[in-house]
Amino acid sequence: MGMLTPDARPVRFGDLPLGKFVRRLTILSAMGLFLDGYDLTIISVALLFIKPQFHPAPYLVGLVGAAALGGMFVGSLVLGNLSDRYGRRTMYVFDLLFFVVFAILSALSQNMVELIIFRFFLGIGIGADYPISSALTAEFAPTKRRGMLLVTTIAFWQVGAVVAYGASLLMLHIGPEAWRWMLASGAIPALIVMWLRRTIPESPRWLTATGRPAEGMKIAQEVATAQGALLKEDIPDTPTPTHKVASFRRLFEPDLIRLTIFTAGCWFLFDVGDYGTIVFFPTIFKMMAGSTLMSSVLASGAIAAIAFVGIAIDWLIVDKVGRKLPQAVGFLGLGVIFITMALIKPAFALFLILFLVMYIFQQGPGQMTYVFPGEVFPTSVRATGHGFATSFSRLGGLLGVFVFPIMLAKYGLGSGLLLFGVCALGGFVLTVWLAPEPKGKKLADA
Domains, the chain, ranges and CATH? Predict the structure, then answer.
């Protein structure tokens, strides 16, 4: 616990200092996104081993890629809502238990049906972590740094993707059973994160919004004191709720429906192309002339790594220029590049360059579609709103992951890339039309 001095800086309930606690919370929240990036990426490499072992039909390949997304739809929608009803902390600690158990069971699968079922349940835990981690991070973050902290959280998805490619390269030598080790490997960091999260307290904003302001003020004071600051004894800036906490109906009332359509619609359109390409990057490169198993994985890993250029740009500008501009520019860039790739002849080197450029643009909507719902909804339905947007995004991911291999087999690569480009341009239009700008606003006003 920090020591207060006579000149301790006074802070308000809703603007706690950016100190050790908030940084630790941000990293622990980010690790949930890390696991999503790790798992979704490593299954893309594992499929290179699963397909020759089980010889699945194209629709079964699509279902393996889509199963975790289906679980995420359920987890984000249901458990996100429950965290608004019963609190963030319990769900925050135990949602990753789904990941641990079903990552191990996925690795032990004896056929495609078992693999699909286990990955669905694994996805429930990952999906739940999106709204819960976003809500906790946003509710503890200082206003002027909130965008940066939320970008940090979702940026760990990409860290997980890069680590997954590195881990998969180390396991390629195992042979035909390498995919089992790949799918099981994510259980180790998940167990560590579960253990470390147990010390995170309940959100003061949630306690206040549910009629327990004294408990909320106590936690906020402890956090402020630990950073050598003094919490002002004023009325918390989370207003007394006039609506029922965690009501899905609340998301469609006149003052919120625009936000609901914007957050869910843009994230849906983004994930059609994002998940559709991520899961099948190695497959796309492997089908091109002159490629090998190793070169396909290395090319995919290079694309994942270049994303950090875009992430760094977003991290530096999000609290200066806002959220709307990076999302709009990113969607426009994605649309133009996807459509260009759909209209030209596939070639390994050329497609690698275009994917590298595209993945820099991708980070605008890649980060902001996660940041927006954590900021624009009121505390009483923040996790519910984020969970709804997340679940809708998983429907987009399901569409991309399930339809893409079928389109690839029947109509060729260009047809899928054209679909992804049209969706990206739709996200651009929706962002320009409906996006608010929460930069610099307190959560109660955003």
Answer: 9-434 (1.20.1250.20)
